[in-house]
Design a protein that fits this description.
single chain, about 475 residues, alpha/beta, Aconitase, domain 3, Aconitase, Domain 2, four-stranded parallel β-sheet, 16 helices, 18 strands, globular
Length: about 475
């Protein structure tokens, strides 16, 4: 009896070294402009080619602007990185989806929506949120630049086999609670190091009832509790999402693959190194109040008192609250915010824009709030316009930007000014993550929408039925 992780892992083991290190075959490598230049330079120095170029996809996303993509990139560092990726892709014969290409966007959005990501695969990228792809029943994880070079050269990687953990979320979610809230709740209970050394499989009624895009959000955030990656067993939801995608199998090949994918589940009685269970009824719309994703709470709760924090962590806890301008024990409901960011590989998909638009429809953006609404890809942007969501947003006073990682990590022009508060649907709230001195409050698309129209941190459940 095997877990889902073991079934996929075992099929991809090429060799096991004397010290237990595994040579693991990789089905797909995604490359972006930030972590790949040195890897390609290493290949050139050794006179090597890409071993299996058809299994490598290059997409710039971190450094690209989200306005005026038809113009040359103004920032010289960003321009150099994007230009370098384009040249490397051309020199090594790799697929490249550059700015304004119909398949450009955030790699972790483009991979699933084009069908490049499929169940049973091993997938790597020089980016920690590669765990996103595990939602489709794949083993997906982030790697370093030297490992990117190794994968380019050999289509294999050297890895230690991680431990396994199953996180089960049973019950039914209450109205107004999104997949992002589920993930932030889990991280708040697990802490940022609670899953270190583990590969997590998500299970339970909430996961089975989740859409593909909701599953992608949950797996995306696995890394924020220290996990090596997260995954969900593929089922009919997965197959329905994948069918007829550009790179998905067709005809008889599709039927054959689906039959294989249906075997990708954890066998009854399969043993995990650790099992965790949560109840859906305990989850509320979530927000963060500190400077790591584990510092989260229900939106109507008060910031934990200093006395409730482990003594060893009190200095860093107080430092975190000082950075945010918050006080232990106080509520954050009603606090004024300055920016709202909808987007990133966590919440930049069409369902996130549908949710945001459903709450702001018929309302107006608060005058003092700057809102950046950034689709995760050009396909998402196309869907937004096809469904008339752009008109709903426009009437409410919002503008749509062009695809990219945007304000998630401030490697581009979308930076939150120092001292300003941003309610962000991205994945990290570290000091300076969205710009030097920026104060980031992580939330789901409904909480972000509520903040955008009220100008303060607000409970979306009080606004949904207005």
């Amino acid at each position: 009896m095997k877990t889902l992780f073991e079934k996929i892992w075992d099929k991809h083991v090429v060799d096991t070294l004397a010290d237990g290190t595994i040579q693991l075959y990789i089905d797909r490598l995604y490359c972006h402009e930030v972590t790949s230049p040195q890897a390609f330079a290493g290949l050139r120095e050794r006179g090597l080619k890409a071993f299996r170029p058809a299994q490598i996809t290059c997409i710039p996303d971190h450094n690209i602007p989200t306005l005026h993509q038809d113009r040359p990139i103004e920032d010289p560092v960003s321009k150099n990185q994007v230009d370098t990726l384009e040249k490397n892709a051309a020199d090594f014969g790799l697929a490249y989806y550059g700015l304004l290409h119909p398949k450009n966007g955030i790699i972790h959005v483009v991979g699933p929506e084009t069908g490049l990501t499929q169940p049973g695969m091993t997938i790597v990228c020089g980016d920690s949120h590669t765990s996103t792809h595990g939602a489709m029943g794949a083993i997906a994880f982030g790697i370093g630049t030297s490992e990117v070079e190794m994968t380019l050269a050999t289509q294999c990687i050297m890895q230690r086999k991680p431990k396994t953990m199953r996180i089960t979320v049973d019950g039914k979610l209450r109205p107004g609670v999104t997949a992002k809230d589920v993930a932030l709740y889990i991280i708040s209970r697990m802490t940022t190091g609670g899953a270190t050394g583990y590969f997590v499989e998500y299970a339970g009624e909430v996961i089975r009832n989740a859409s593909m895009e909701e599953r992608l959000t949950i797996c995306n955030l696995s890394i924020e509790m220290g996990a090596r990656g997260g995954m969900i067993a593929p089922d009919q939801v997965t197959f329905d999402y994948l069918q007829d995608r550009e790179f998905a199998p067709r005809g008889e090949a599709w039927e054959k693959r689906v039959a294989e994918w249906r075997q990708l589940y954890s066998d009854p009685g399969a043993e995990f190194d650790k099992e965790i269970v949560f109840r859906a009824e305990d989850i509320e719309p979530m927000i963060t109040y500190g400077t790591n994703p584990g510092m989260g709470m229900g939106i109507r709760e008060n910031i934990p008192a200093l006395e409730s924090v482990d003594e060893a962590g009190r200095i860093s806890y107080k430092k975190s609250l000082d950075y945010m301008g918050f006080t232990a024990g106080e509520p954050v409901l009603g606090k004024q915010i300055d920016y709202v960011f909808l987007g990133s590989c966590t919440n930049g998909r069409i369902e996130d824009f549908r949710a945001f638009a459903s709450l702001v429809k018929g309302k107006k953006k608060a005058a003092h709030v700057t809102a950046w609404l950034v689709p995760g890809s050009w396909l998402v942007e196309k869907q937004i316009r096809a469904e008339g969501i752009d008109k709903v947003l426009e009437e409410a006073g919002f503008e749509l930007r062009q695809p990219g990682c945007s304000a998630c990590l401030a490697m581009n022009e979308d930076k939150i000014p120092a001292g300003k508060y941003a309610v962000s649907t991205s994945n990290r709230n570290f000091e300076g993550r969205q710009g030097p001195g920026a104060r980031t409050i992580l939330a789901g698309p409904l909480v972000a929408a509520a903040a955008a129209v009220t100008g303060v941190i607000a409970d979306p459940r009080e606004i949904i039925n207005d």
